[in-house]
Amino acid sequence: MQAIIESLTTANIIMIIGIVGAVVSIPIKDFLTLEYYDVCDVFISLFIVGMFMTKMSEDAQNNMFLLTGIFLGVSVAIIFIKVFVFVPFQEKAETNALLSRKNYIGEPGKVTVALTKERLGEVVLYTVFGNVAATAKIYHQQGEEELLRIETGQAIRVRDVKDAIVFVSPEEIKEFLPPLESRWGK
After folding, report:
1. Which residues pair with 122 in a beta bridge?
2. How far is CA 4 from CA 56, 132, 151, in A?
């Protein structure tokens, strides 16, 4: 083990820091981010600098300006890839993981597991991205009559979202009736 540690070069150490840092920072990357560049990208850039260093001469490895330039170049390349490749694909995607639960406010749905005043239930929301199951609780506003139960199959509308729980109230949804004659059937 000691022989392996002694044989590590600066390039190998930077690559190890890059890999370990990228893997360890995955859970916290949403908190440490600057728009299109997060902490995980820093470690990926370090890994790529280490890869370049393995192909460089000894003199070039000691040139801090060159290494800093490579690091900044890789960082800028990561930002360009995110902005010009990933963002356009996310905007055109039919399903998008960027949908926040706050976007559910106002969406219609149906109760799949009955809700009571004391107990959580489940609803299916009909969003533009498809049907989404969500944990739900009865919405109550001061001054309104307190609702004790919403039955399974009842139409609802989302009024608020807190701590990944949607707060819903019952709503009458007008059924769409197709015309008696359709040009599609002829």
Report:
1. 113, 135
2. 21, 51, 66
pLDDT digits (tens, 9 = 90+) for 36-47: 788 888 899 999
Mean residue pLDDT of the chain comes to 81
164 φ, ψ to 5°?
Answer: 65, 15
pTM (global) more than 0.70: no
Decide if 87 contacts 35 (C-beta within 8 A). Answer: no
Report phi then psi at 174, rounded to 5. -70, 130
Q: Six-digit token pair at 52?
A: 């370049």
Distance CA 33, CA 40 (A): 9
Count of C-beta atoms within a 10 Å radius of residue 16: 14
CA 80 distance to own-chain centroid: 20
Instruction: Please classify residue 2 by burial: count the beta carbons closer than 10 Å to its beta carbon, then call 0-12 exposed, 13-18 middle and 19+ buried.
Output: exposed
Distance from C-alpha of 149 to C-alpha of 50, rounded to nearest angstrom? 61
